[in-house]
């Protein structure tokens, strides 16, 4: 019998002008929907604090041994569901919810400047936009040098690229929590499918 896949999906706590964080609301809605009976879904709320991310993420990866970790964040500028391709190591100047900022201004001293997800977000985006989902999806290569980018980079490093980051617009601008949850579900199933497909491709090369 095939083992169930494990997927962790996180959202963030409120910060700044986001008194309700659309990312966590959408992730809680996603938890109600589930990802199907063959996938274990774990959700977690991430504090908007650099130090909390540094302790929480390694424990999530270690405890659940997920195939994929998807972080969801809110962007006041987003009008689409935005797939982030990479995380950045340096340039963290903004204070977090504890008024803290890393002295080094980076996630991982000596780490690579940029880590890309193993998943090609352009492919995921094209598939979703032609799927009749009814929600616009776009791709970005700059997650904003705040907790979203910081979390993504840390997770990409810990999971050797088996991570994704999705920015969602604030609730009602234009999508409801339910619509965002549907979109996240479609995104995650597409991400898993692509990972499967890529794994298969590597085996083929191996066999020849």
Automatic annotation (TrEMBL):
GO terms for cellular component: cytosol. InterPro entries: Peptidase_C15 (IPR000816), Peptidase_C15-like (IPR016125), Peptidase_C15-like_sf (IPR036440), PGPEP1_Cys_AS (IPR033694). It is found in: Cytoplasm. One of its GO terms (molecular function) is pyroglutamyl-peptidase activity. SUPFAM superfamilies: Pyrrolidone carboxyl peptidase (pyroglutamate aminopeptidase). The active site is at residue 148. Monomer. Belongs to the peptidase C15 family. PANTHER family: PROTEASE FAMILY C15 PYROGLUTAMYL-PEPTIDASE I-RELATED, PYROGLUTAMYL-PEPTIDASE I. This is Pyroglutamyl-peptidase I. It comes from Sinocyclocheilus grahami. The lineage of its organism: Eukaryota, Metazoa, Chordata, Craniata, Vertebrata. The gene is pgpep1.
